[in-house]
Amino acid sequence: MSRRTGRSLVLLMIILLISSLCMSSCNLIGLGLKDNDEYLTKDEVQNMINNNMGDNVTVEGGDNYDITINGVENDNVAAAKALLCSVSIRCVFRTVSYGMSYQPGASTGREKTSAGSGVIYKLDKNNGDAYILTNYHVVYYNQSDTENGISDNITVYLYGQESADYAIPATYVGGSMNYDLALLKVDGSRILAESNATEADLADSDEVAVLDRAIAVGNPAALGISATLGYINVESEYIRMEGADGATEIQIRVMRTDTAVNSGNSGGGLFNSEGKLIGIVNAKLNNTDNMGYAIPSNFVKSVAENILYYCDGTNLENVYRCYLGIVVSPSKLYTVYDEETGKVHKREQISVISTEKGGLAEGVLLEGDIINSITVDGVTYEVDKMYIVTDSMLSARVGSVVSIRVTRGNETLDLNIEITEKSLTLIK
User: Of 428, 242, 236, 239, which is closest to residue 321 (Cα–Cα)?
Assistant: First the structure.
């Protein structure tokens, strides 16, 4: 065993020990790392990440995914693409003393830190601008002295530049505790403009299947960006976990993976074998190995675009979803085998159970209607899972005409509903 390998194993054991000690008593925990005030020196970080992909790997390019790595398509290529669109995040919070409430301008002199991860969602290299996805619980602290609980001192670090000399300031655009997603913004960063960073290439998470490859890139134990490798175990399920405020129980739809994730992985990307983003890592099952969770990329994209529309450049900070006023349920469960890919996908036939009095769908949709698809502003969502009905409404705006194709008896009908302001629901 080489000296480098032996040192890596010792470091891994230390990280695992720290992670186990940091676990809370909750069954499901978010993976933001709080109260970690000790960071490695620049030289220590550089030594850890140096040769992380092996001496035989050469990275070229970087703009718009024009990347070649020794001309070979393998896990290293996927990991390289993932690393170049990933960031580590550090938030500093000034805290309110016990029993005190928020007071503008008040300062207690006490600070806490939060370490997490993020993914570059949009990138303008020429101007050094970017939007970065992360978890809400990474940037929020329930004892922060800011009015909204969000850190006003957020810095991000690119892969290979994880030291104070390369800290990039970021600001909060908006987010949702119930969705555990937040969007950050970087303006005019010379470091970003001169880097090899790229924006993430998003995959269709509805096409993810059991035993697809899954690469988690994050900042475990606040030791810098690293990657772990595993598989998808469940492509879609719901978990309940404690919200960022420590008091609210939230339910989130996630995919399950056996890829190793630990404290500090929160907000980092889960990528497929092509290096495309399939999810944002947000939790793991406490005291259980190989059960981590990520929010699917299709949902992440809908929330991110919603935040950009309502919050960027405004004084709003929340997600707003249009509410149709219908109750739906699966009336049939089945599976589909894709001969081209060799994958099996679970599917649902979705039927209307009832409509709410005074809701947008009243008198338009009827009990027993089978919803085949929903078209919002020219984009069609095939409804073969119940969550697609509500998720598609994140893309609807006031004034949008939503076309719903249904089967009613022996007929196929296209029914139109105009979205009004009263149908907007704030998602905290």
Answer: 428
